[in-house]
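Entry 14. Structure prediction run on the chain below.
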Amino acid sequence: MVSMHPALVLSSPGLMRPERVPTKHPQAGEILVAPLRASICGSDLDLLRGSRPIGTRILGHEGIAEIVEVGPGPTPFAVGQRVTFLPNNPTNVEDILGVSTEGLFQRALLISQPALERGMVIPCDPALPLVCGPLLEPFATVLYGQHLVEQAYQPKSMVVVGAGAIGLLNILAAQAHGCSQIFLVDTSRARLDWAVRRGIVDPSSALLNSPQLAETLLEHTNGRGVDVVYICTPRTATRSVLEQALYMVREEGCINLTAGTDSREPLAALPGVDLNQVRHANVCGLGQQVTHCVTREGKPVFLTGHSGASTSYLQEAMGLLLTNPTTYAKVISHVVSYRAVPRVVEALLASEAHRQSEAPYVKVIIDLTTEDLAIEEFDPHRL
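Output returned:
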């Protein structure tokens, strides 16, 4: 008799639905995990929009799980152990959990021996609140990106473009490192207002994107420009936002590309620069490359980007979340059951920001252990 388990399965482009799928059981060198909490990432939305290639029908790479079965033979893992994940393969940029292989949006996931050998599964401190588990991997990538930027410049002023979880985690991490002037930019007033209500930014620092944005930021910085710009937008917006960033950043300042682009065409404003290569130079915490380049107008700037993180950055993220979970959990807007995910995804993919009980969907945590249709706003002070 074939055992089955619930999963969120891509039924057509942009649509997921709950289904029951066969459960694979581990052979030697493998483990079976039960995802407990996962989250919807901006890259998941890029996959659903069709702006990134996809090789699986089950998405999800940010989360926390419990080991429920181990294959025969010696293993460092044990049944009942909580684990989290580093989804990127450092030796193959196309091999990504929840992109090229089945992901975490299901109640049982077989982890292969090669994935275990490359370090994809990381033990998780049981003291970490479950709801914070899906923040570990994105927070680790934020810490990696900030480390790269600090090789070029120790920022005292910065702009974060994109009020999603990655953008907000960048702000919280920069505040902890003493950055004194931080601006948050987004196309959604609802998201900006939500970040203000959460105490992540001041009202005067939350700016709606517009053609006049660069001029506004130059006024705020006495014509100098900011030290650093973090681009935390969907892939489809990266190129246009980068054009803006080149005007916002000071000479010899730094721009970080958190996401890739939806085109391999060169950017006219940065002649001779391969934007995808900038990101691919820094994979899984291994690369440390920051590129010095000159704009079409002759302005010298630094450019960097990255994909994934390493165990050391994930452990740093875990330490920060254990020490002060309430601060970093501010980026979580909702906790939803897996059956409610299709409704949430529909709203996230819509052209305008949607609200749920006066709060936009920002970082949505999926509770994979419940069968109801719950959608609840999250209060970080409950931790």
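Confidence is low (pLDDT under 50) at residues 353-357.
Filed with the rest of this week's runs.
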